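User: Before I run my own analysis I want an independent prediction to cross-check against. Here's the chain; please return only the structure tokens and, at the end, one sentence I can use as a sanity check.
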Amino acid sequence: MNATPIKVLVIDDEPPIRKLLRMGLSTQGYEILEASNGKNALELLEQNPALIVLDLGLPDIQGHELLRMIRGLNDSVPIVVLSSRGDEAGKVQALDLGADDYLTKPFGMDELLARMRAALRHQLQVHGERPVFRSGDLSVDLVRRIVKVGERDVKLSPKEYELLRVLVQHAGKVLTHRFLLKELWDELTDAQYLRVYVRQLRQKIEADPERPQFVLTETGIGYRLRAPD
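Assistant: Structure tokens:
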């Protein structure tokens, strides 16, 4: 257990889910704060949790509205959203409002822990961005704009590099189609343009572009770059 446990705020109105999370996260050394509704969650936010696990289905404040309120009070705390299966529109909206990741109920504890670690790593990366990103055989030097897979130099077009740079800056986090389109084009463009550049990028950095290991598709939502090593 860490000398100073990482404080996690769990916001969920279902007692069995809160109990599952409390038991699962406590065994990993996390300190758990629990809120069964939005009002209680906003009060506990004053205790400065290092990460928030937020269920969108709350009794008093609609989950997306609570997410907007939390982001208004704290724009950097990592937030992992829990949502019902198949609610793609709800996931996209949550990510666009500032959530870092999402999990679909029911979920496995190991997967939640991995998503939490990635979200915490991403926050550290944003605050102290590393000049060289590494994930598996892929390395991206953000200062010298050099991209390599193993020992092989990869030549990218300016737009392909911009796409990769945005993915690297948010490695491990799901980026929605809308977010990427806004980052890469001054005017909101058709998502088909984005798919073309993702395909071209995969052709250059993936061993098998049909089974990508780095640029991963989140079906109906967007893309995620594999988290750094």
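Sanity check: Helices lie at 15-26, 38-44, 63-73, 88-96, 109-127, 158-169, 177-184, 191-205.
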